[in-house]
Write a structure and sequence with these properties.
single chain; 113 residues; mainly beta; four-stranded antiparallel sheet; 0% helix
Length: 113
C-alpha cells in the first residue's frame, strides 16, 4: 500500500490550495477515503471522508463549507480542495483509506501572512 500526498505549501489567510493523494497497492475504488491533519504536539484530527463511489461526503465542523473532498477512481486519487484558509488550518495533511492501516508521509500546509 502506498499513499502519496502532494499539493501543500505556504498560503496567505483567505487563500486556497488543492491537495492530492495518489493511492496504490489496494483496490482504491472499493474504499472510503479520508483526510486527516496533525499539528506537532497534538493528536491527528479527522478532516473529511468520501465514500467509495464519491457520492457521499462528510466534514469536520471546523472545515465545513470551506473544504471539499473529491476523488477520481480512474486515477486512484483523492483530493482536498481547501478555500478560505485560516491560520489554524496549518498542519501536516494525510490521506487514508478507511480500514487500511497505512499512512502516507503527509503534505505540509502553512497558512501565514
Amino acid at each position: 500500500v502506498q499513499l502519496v500526498e502532494s499539493g501543500g505549501g505556504l498560503v496567505q489567510p483567505g487563500g486556497s490550495l488543492r491537495l492530492s493523494c495518489a493511492a496504490s497497492g489496494f483496490t482504491f475504488s472499493s474504499y472510503m477515503m479520508s483526510w486527516y491533519r496533525q499539528v506537532p504536539g497534538k493528536e491527528r484530527e479527522w478532516v473529511a471522508t468520501i465514500n467509495s463511489a464519491g457520492g457521499s461526503t462528510d466534514y469536520a465542523d471546523s472545515v465545513k463549507g470551506r473544504f471539499t473532498i473529491s476523488r477520481d477512481n480512474a486515477k486512484n486519487t483523492v483530493y482536498l480542495q481547501m478555500s478560505s484558509l485560516k491560520v489554524e488550518d496549518t498542519a501536516l495533511y494525510y490521506c487514508k483509506a478507511n480500514g487500511v492501516p497505512y499512512w502516507g508521509q503527509g503534505t505540509q500546509v502553512t497558512v501565514s501572512s
